[in-house]
Amino acid sequence: MDRSEKAVLVFSKQFGRHSYGTSHPLKVERLQLTMDLIAAYGLFDNPDAPWIEARNADEKDLLQFHSAEYLEMLKLANTGQAPPQARRFGLGSGDNPVFPGLFDWSLLVAGATLECVRQVMDGDRRIAFNIAGGLHHALADRASGFCYLNDPVIGISRMVENGLRVVYLDVDVHHGDGVEAAFYDSDQVLTISIHQHGYTLFPGTGFPDEMGEGPGRGYTVNVPLAPGTDDDLYLGVFMEVVPPLVRAYDPDVLVTQLGVDTLATDPLAALNLTTNGFIKLIEEIKSWNRKWVALGGGGYDVMNVARTWTQAWAVMRGADIPDVLPDAFVKQHRAELGRISTLSDPVSGMDAAVPDSARKLAASVVAGIKENIFPVLGS
């Protein structure tokens, strides 16, 4: 079996039936846009069956993390009308609107992540990618940050239940607080979150002194970075911290949340990465040659999402693709593209000087992790 057949996408056209609302930053259409670009590059092995079809999660899987009371509230909200006490569960705010099919959407996203888990646990797939997944803010009994069900936690819980040890690596610009909370006292999951500093961005958490508790002390790693952090600084921090920790922990499975809201042109955050820097991360992760459940995440410029996750999928498959966007895709999506014509970002305009304060913060965070976390894991 060649390398391309070791990677699989999990997807459903049913994702496109749902919407958070026209004014909401999270655009579900970014998923189909990504699939259109993947198709335009010929990155499907079998055009007749280009992906594994997602199916709804079972409620017993949801109950591994979420409370029964919260799930009942999500079921009531599925009508699109906010039920009584909805706000107590985080529903109905600007971030977490109540929309028709809310629970259906959430079940399908969680089910797609569980299918990725099945593919790497029970199949012979080394990599499984759910671009709709990575909804990392949802808490056990509360919606948060556009997330209703925490599909990373649900998928990881399935693996832990089967005795597997997992590294969860989150490169979204926002701290992966919901996943951290779920495994804060466990040494079966090493959580690593690299994000914009909590003093400057939602959810206001993810500080270096959050290191886990009890048996989990030292198995939670937070790497907050300052606004203005660019490719070089980010990649330098990543290489100093992440590969040594992954090697030392030696997980059975790697789960990544691949939010692309770290890019300079994302409207909701202030890091200064490019698609070029992001893909270097993906290439590094691929080089570890581990079983890998890849999940989507944030990204609020829809064309950034399509371009970056398409490149990520090409790396996962071991495929080389041209930088210039395919003509068919350009004609189909000219309005969304504007002046964009390539997968890569232009260097000019992205090369603002990184503040000295950002470099000092990064150096301090790395030093603290090496002092406090590395000895626990034997790095």
Question: How would you describe what is shown here?
Answer:
The protein is an alpha/beta fold and 379 residues long. It has a single domain (3-377), classed as 3-Layer(aba) Sandwich (Arginase, Chain A), CATH 3.40.800.20. Helices cover 37% and strands 10% of the residues. The chain has 13 helices and 8 strands. Helix 4 packs parallel to helix 5, helix 7 packs parallel to helix 12 (356-372) and helix 8 (275-287) packs parallel to helix 9. The radius of gyration is 19 Å and the shape is globular. The protein starts with 6 loop residues before the first strand and ends with a helix.
In terms of topology, how is this protein built?
Blueprint: E1 7-11, H1 29-40, E2 52-53, H2 59-62, H3 68-77, H4 102-121, E3 127-130, H5 151-161, E4 166-170, H6 177-182, E5 189-196, E6 220-225, H7 231-249, E7 253-257, H8 275-287, E8 292-295, H9 302-317, H10 327-332, H11 334-337, H12 356-372, H13 374-377
Parallel strand pairs: 1-2, 1-3, 3-8, 4-5, 4-7, 5-6, 7-8
Helix pairs in contact: 1-9, 4-5, 7-8, 7-12, 8-9
